[in-house]
Structures are given as structure tokens and as C-alpha cells.
Specification:
Helices cover 34% and strands 29% of the residues. The protein is of the alpha/beta class.
């Protein structure tokens, strides 16, 4: 199992490596995909609050709060990113709160969020804690709520060395297989890559944003 100190170190390095780009970015590509989807579904999907797991500085949360008035929370392993993000949030007086922490141990009550967004973080989740992360995600999202995953999306599971940190691995998979058996319905999917807005033939470069609806119990069990 990857130590938490190692996760923090890798997250700090990611933030410092990408800080200038993040400062110039309104929101991530995955959050843009969700925003466009949500614009078409606001009559039927009511999102009052959200959580982003792996929120970095909280820039996606700031975007969602300003655009839709959504009360936004975030959890992020990088202390440096959280400190920097809190300053930005305070300056703009936004209804956004971010905390330093880890995906496999979320400091939130059960079934409190209408939307949980995992924004390009699952590929770095150690496989020993993968199901803890998924279980925690499921625990905090309401039934009738939304779970969104932006990440690598490959038809078979791959593991590769991380090009930025030799002490952790990059895991690639289709995460719909983990959620579908447990009452989630895939309601939208957009495939792209870091280099193109359309389909990517190179299997190793494929990304997607997948949007899942967490079915209500009465809707997934049919009385005999």
C-alpha cells in the first residue's frame, strides 16, 4: 500500500508542476463536459451541493459555484494546493470549502451530496485502497444523485510506471464496471484525450467523462 506521505508528495508535485496552467483554466475538460450535460438536464436533475475528490486548488468547484450557485466541497491530498486554493476562495468570497485529506476516508456524513466528481484522480489510487475509495464515494452520494468520473478509459486494465514519480503507478481501466452492479446507471459518456476532443485511437491515451445516476432503491428492485 502506498503511504499517505508518498501520496501527499506526489500531489504537491502535481500542483507545483501544473500551477500556472491551472491559474489560467476556468475548469477542467471533464468538468466542462459535465457542465454542458447539466445545462441540458437542469429541469430533471437538481444539484444543490457537490463534492470533488481530488480537487487540487478547487478551481472546478469555484467554477460550479459561480456558474450555478452550487454549494461546493472538495478533498485533496496536497497541502500546498489546498492552502493556495483557500486563498483564492477567500479572495472571491465563494461558497466553496476545500480540505486536505484522502479519497478512502472522506470526512463527510452519509448521503449528503447531490453530485460527487472524481476528476482525473482514480488512475493514481493505489489498488489496495481502490474499493475503499469507491465505497466512500458511494457512501456520501445521495440516491437520486450523480457520480461523475473523469479518467483514463481503456477496454482492459493496464498498469504502467508513472512518468513523474517512480514510486507510484498509473492504473488505467473502465470504471463503469465497478459502479454498474451496485445500482448506478451510466447516463452519459464522452470519450476524448489530452490531445483531441474526439475519439482517440491510441488505447493508452483514451480518456472519458462518465456520468452515473445513483438509482433509488424502489427503482432498481422489481417486486415479484
Amino acid at each position: 500500500m502506498v503511504a499517505r506521505q508518498m501520496i501527499q508528495k506526489a500531489a504537491d508535485a502535481y500542483f507545483l508542476r501544473n500551477k500556472e496552467v491551472i491559474d489560467k483554466t476556468e475548469c477542467s475538460a471533464g468538468m466542462r463536459v459535465f457542465s454542458e450535460f447539466y445545462d441540458e438536464c437542469r429541469d430533471t436533475l437538481k444539484i444543490k451541493n457537490m463534492l470533488e475528490i481530488g480537487c487540487c486548488t478547487g478551481y472546478n468547484l469555484m467554477f460550479m459555484n459561480k456558474r450555478y450557485g452550487i454549494t461546493a466541497s472538495g478533498i485533496e491530498p496536497s497541502p500546498k494546493a489546498v492552502e493556495y486554493g483557500k486563498e483564492k476562495i477567500f479572495e472571491q468570497q465563494l461558497n466553496v470549502e476545500i480540505k486536505q485529506g484522502f479519497a478512502d476516508r472522506l470526512p463527510y456524513a452519509d448521503a449528503v451530496f447531490d453530485l460527487v466528481y472524481l476528476g482525473f484522480c482514480m488512475y493514481q489510487v493505489d489498488r489496495d485502497t481502490l474499493f475503499y475509495t469507491l465505497a466512500e464515494t458511494d457512501r456520501v452520494v445521495k440516491r437520486g444523485g450523480i457520480c461523475v468520473i473523469t479518467d483514463f478509459d481503456t477496454p482492459v486494465r493496464y498498469v504502467r510506471e508513472n512518468i513523474h514519480n517512480k514510486d507510484i503507478f498509473t492504473y488505467k481501466a473502465d470504471y463503469s464496471v465497478y459502479l454498474a452492479p451496485y445500482g448506478y446507471t451510466l447516463i452519459y459518456k464522452k470519450m476524448y484525450s489530452h490531445n483531441t476532443h474526439g475519439f482517440e485511437p491510441d488505447v493508452q491515451e483514451r480518456l472519458s467523462t462518465q456520468i452515473f445516476y445513483k438509482e433509488k432503491i424502489k427503482d432498481i428492485y422489481v417486486k415479484d
